[in-house]
Design a protein that fits this description.
By secondary structure, the chain is mainly α. Helix content is 62%, strand content 5%. The chain has 27 helices and 8 strands.
């Protein structure tokens, strides 16, 4: 006897797909209980090291992304405290590092420009209100388990959106890279045209600082790792060190401007005074008119921020065989964004580079995020005077190098080779973002992807199938040598049946019967049908009677259990005839080939 072999009706050795366990578990809604109540001393070193390293990365990044959002540097630091604590307690990912992110910062800048605030106070009010709306949207989606909505943003659409956004972000930093005072514009090409027209005004010192910073950052990204490998350092040390480039250029740039007095002698734009102290309590706007104006941007931020975060979280969790709860992630991100709204910040999301460093440095629990938040708080309390001479050109260089990762050249090529429709939706999104705007661009992309999907599924692949040799397998007669019975026409449809393709199916089946006058039986093989909607059900009812009038008996084969259950509920099985439904195409052919001719 083979030990461990599952036979008869013994329980399956695997948990059912999608099984989340039965009964109420508080830790499902408060994930920190799972790691806090069972915290092991062995996890502390990893959490501590990861928290410190991510904090070192986050300080320059947070100020740079605040600059991208059109906000003062401290706004980026503010959203690196309370939101990180909230996510560390409520998030299901042990390694996702949330905080300011390039894509979200760009969207915030777009929202601010559309509202057109007249002062810094109004700008900050718009930002914190966007954080509140984004948080409420994500929290609501999580509580009502609406995470599936992000599936409408296909990979090609996201690729086109992100690549175009990278260009928009790069264009927005030209004023700091070149040292030219370029007016804010919703369209990136207007900024480029303005820069070209005023090329004579370039501040070459600012340009030199930017180019030097970019060179150092690129070396840290590409060349330093190889050098450290040759020295023989461990991978766990190399990865964090290669991520300290932003801190290095911040220190060097600050010393350079301060030491040579470049603020006054060369007109170098600097960060200036960063208020010391922990984030203040702030109150977002609750004016419905403001909410209405900001809602489209907030919805875009909520979806894009969640997509960016969940993809990173799932990727890292899979490496440790950990599970991510998508709906709880929405709750955690939403609550964190609400926290940002009341502490002077703007919307947050997961960051790829920070999360990878968090993972590599050994983060084991949400405590790593809380440690990072504590160190950012300490920075705000003690170190803010050191940022006074930090040049904006350095922060722009950090942004520029960061967004180079957004450019995706592989997906367009693969999409064009594999599926032209996906390539079209990618191109439409890319063009719309650049020519029309960020929000409209992603809506155009999602709309194009949905329209192309409806068009594709409205004309599904339909094949006449026959038996392969003496086997029980049936395949397309145009692709394989098969055996058929002229009285039995077996047709397989490779799509679920719903309103866009219901009429198409009827036309195809009636045409097939008309082209084969010897046919007495038509078998629709439903092996690829996962759903039949009401429109398609009415078409099947109509076909039953039309074929009967033509002297042809209608049969179904390989109908899946969930589909059969629905047909049973509406009484269709009795109307159709239970003896005309077969478990397999093989069984249908065996029965009908042996039946007497009509």
């Amino acid at each position: 006897m083979n030990e461990g072999k599952v036979v008869g009706t013994q329980p399956a050795p695997f948990k059912p797909l999608g099984d989340q366990g039965s009964g109420f578990r508080l830790s499902r809604y408060l994930p920190f209980l799972e790691w806090l109540l069972n915290y092991q001393r062995a996890n502390l070193s990893g959490d501590l090291i990861a928290g410190v390293i991510v904090a070192v990365m986050l300080v320059p990044q947070s100020m740079a992304y605040a600059l991208l959002a059109g906000l003062p540097a401290q706004s980026g630091l503010y959203i690196s405290i309370v939101p990180l604590v909230i996510y560390g307690l409520l998030g299901t990912s042990r390694t996702l590092a949330v905080g300011p992110a390039a894509m979200v910062s760009l969207l915030v800048a777009t929202g601010i420009s559309q509202i057109g605030p007249q002062s810094l106070a109004e700008t900050i009010l718009v930002a914190i209100t966007l954080a509140l709306l984004t948080g409420l949207i994500q929290l609501g989606m999580g509580l009502f388990r609406l995470g599936f909505m992000v599936n409408f943003l296909s990979h090609p659409v996201l690729s086109g959106f992100v690549s175009a956004a990278g260009i928009v972000i790069a264009a927005s930093q030209l004023k700091h890279i070149l040292g030219i005072d370029i007016p804010r514009s919703e369209h990136f090409y207007e900024q480029i045209v303005y820069a070209v027209e005023h090329i004579s005004q370039i501040n070459f010192v600012a340009l030199a600082i930017s180019v030097g910073s970019i060179g150092i950052l690129l070396y840290f990204r590409s060349g330093l790792g190889a050098l450290l490998h040759r020295i023989g350092l461990a991978e766990g040390v190399i990865v964090p060190l290669t991520k300290t480039g932003p801190l290095v250029v911040v220190v060097l740039g600050t010393l350079l401007v301060w030491g040579f007095g470049l603020r006054d002698s060369a007109g170098i734009s600097i960060v200036g005074t960063v208020p010391a102290g922990l984030p203040p309590l702030t109150m977002p706007s609750f004016d419905l008119a403001d909410w209405s104006a900001m809602l489209p941007v907030a919805l875009t931020i909520a979806l894009v921020g969640y997509m960016e975060s969940i993809s990173i979280a799932k990727s890292l969790a899979s490496k440790r065989r950990q599970k991510i709860d998508p709906d709880q992630e929405l709750v955690a991100l939403g609550t964190a964004n609400i926290g940002a709204a009341f502490t002077g910040g703007y919307p947050i999301a997961g960051g790829l580079s920070r999360s990878v460093v968090n993972f590599t440095a050994g983060a084991n629990t949400g405590l790593a995020s809380i440690i990072t938040a504590a160190l950012i708080g300490l920075t705000l309390l003690v170190l803010t005077p050191l940022f006074f001479y930090l040049p904006n050109a350095v922060l722009a260089a950090i942004i520029l190098v960061a967004v180079t990762k957004l450019f995706d050249f592989e997906t367009p090529r693969h999409a064009w080779q594999y599926n032209k429709a996906d390539a079209i939706s990618l191109g439409a999104t890319f063009a719309a973002v650049l020519l029309v705007g960020i929000e409209t661009g992603i809506l155009v992309g999602a709309g194009a992807a949905l329209a192309l999907y409806l068009w594709r599924t409205s004309r599904p692949h339909v094949a006449i199938i026959g038996r392969i040799g003496e086997t029980e397998h049936f395949r397309n007669v145009l692709r394989h040598e098969t055996t058929t019975d002229p009285r039995v026409l077996m047709v397989r449809i490779d799509e679920s049946l719903y309103f866009p393709n219901a009429q198409y199916l009827e036309d195809v089946l009636l045409s097939a019967v008309a082209d084969n006058p010897a046919v007495d039986h038509l078998v629709l093989v439903c092996s690829a049908v996962n759903y039949i909607d009401t429109s398609a059900l009415e078409v099947l009812r109509g076909l039953l009677h039309e074929l009967r009038d033509a002297g042809v008996t209608f049969h179904l084969a390989e109908v899946k259990g969930p589909v059969m259950d629905r047909l049973e509920q509406v009484g269709f099985l009795d109307e159709f005839g239970r003896d005309h439904i077969y478990l397999s195409a093989h069984q249908a052919m065996q029965t009908l080939s042996a039946a007497p001719g009509q």
